[in-house]
Amino acid sequence: MTSIKISQTDNILCFSCTGHADFAEKGRDIVCAGISALCAALLGRISELESKKQTEIKKCRVSDGTLVLHFTLTGKAEECYKTVLCGFEFIAKAYPENCRIYVGK
Question: Tens place of pLDDT for every residue, the chain, 105 residues?
């Protein structure tokens, strides 16, 4: 099961994605591939925005099956986050046994 946890404190968005979807064997898991692609897109775009001084990454940790990313929620960063969140929500709805989203405050 992949768990996506999202919370916001002041203007800092705290995002974490952990675990493996376990939909299929490694290398054939379409759920994991979709989640991984969205995580890579989020990290790539937020990093790009940071290099342009349009957001600030407060924390970033990437390892096997894990992305933890905390960043300031500026206009462009929020737009990026909301777009990627739509993708995560679609996957969680289509594969509820393999992906869950938890939103906190």
Answer: 999 999 998 899 999 999 999 999 988 999 999 999 999 999 999 999 999 999 999 999 999 889 999 999 999 999 999 999 999 999 999 999 999 999 986
Give the residue extent of every domain in the chain: 2-98
**C-alpha distances in Å from residue 11, one per residue of 37, 64, 71, 75:** 25, 28, 8, 11
| pTM of the complete model | 0.93
Report the CATH number of the 2-98 domain. 3.30.70.1490
Amino acid at 38: L
